[in-house]
């Protein structure tokens, strides 16, 4: 096989997502997911050249799971050029993808308190992969890195300076890998040079964020210190009045942990609907007359529209609005409802094109003579592989 192979690893608390990406192939040689890691039911399923495979991992932790998975990857790859690791929080210290030296690993550890659900499992995957393949280059690709170009007036909170200077409390932004890939792909699809293009990107999955991208750089984004700020998400509230937390504590005796659980695990689409965090389920329920599901959808779309309008303040002009993520790439209703809330922008969808752009098909969905709106399927694994190769090539 010609072209170099990069293994992409994304470690969650009880899961490891992985893909074997060849630089000359559009599809992935291997794409898989290990789940329920750390339990007796631990298992991995993967697709290898189109064929489905499965392995029980029997109580494996991250290191054991990778030790069982990687020989299969190695066999399919022949030669591996490097490993790209998704890392959620790189703080202010990391501005771009880089080699995972002991110093960089120290930065990831130091930022664990800002991403307690993400950085520690990421580190488990990194350490396990390095001990299995010490001779290969291991590259960290950080969710926060793309947003390091935000100007200070966008990333600082209006709180006393020492919280920023002494404790690094500022807005960081997340989903950077996706926002970067989608804004570049969108420019390519629209026939515009990346370095002279202005986009609003809405990444709508289980986690949701929107970003203003100018000339290939993030200028503002909806997520902040943590991935809780901003849009309404599957189980996350997004923005609430910060006093809510004090009120819950004073009036109802909520602890910090109770507040965190409420706002990150029990809120968002799930909290409002009382039914599900899954948009597909809510659309179906709402079509059958479920009023709470309908309200959850309405809040989701209105809040998204409001945030997109706010982000337009970071753009000198608008070349287009790009939808991505599981909801953005598939939910025609959500795209329509969101744009209906943005009347002063003069958006108008081509209804047939909107219906057509689902299940991985991207393209223009706006009507002629109106601002450009496109669906751009994201591909974080490809972006991580591209950035990994760029670091290896010293670019
Ligand atoms: P992600 O985290 O990017 O995988 O996105 C997951 C979200 O996408 C869930 O809320 C899904 O319900 C939603 N989703 C996937 N397919 C559809 C669809 N056909 N219609 C509406 N929502 C969808």
TrEMBL record:
Which residues does this entry assign to the site Transition state stabilizer? 175, 236
Q: Which Gene3D superfamilies match?
A: 3.30.420.40
Is Cell inner membrane among the key words of this record? no
Q: Which GO terms describe its biological process?
A: acetate metabolic process; acetyl-CoA biosynthetic process
Binding-site list for Mg(2+): 10, 380
Q: Which domain of life is it from?
A: Bacteria
Among the GO molecular function terms of this UniProt record, one is:
magnesium ion binding
The alphabetical list of record keywords is: ATP-binding, Cytoplasm, Kinase, Magnesium, Metal-binding, Nucleotide-binding, Transferase
Q: What class of enzyme is it?
A: transferase
Primary site of residence? cytoplasm
Location of this chain's protein in the cell:
Cytoplasm
Q: Name one GO cellular component term.
A: cytosol
* Matches recorded under HAMAP family: Acetate_kinase (MF_00020)
Q: How does the record describe its quaternary structure?
A: Homodimer.
According to UniProt, the name of this protein is Acetate kinase
Q: Which gene encodes it?
A: ackA
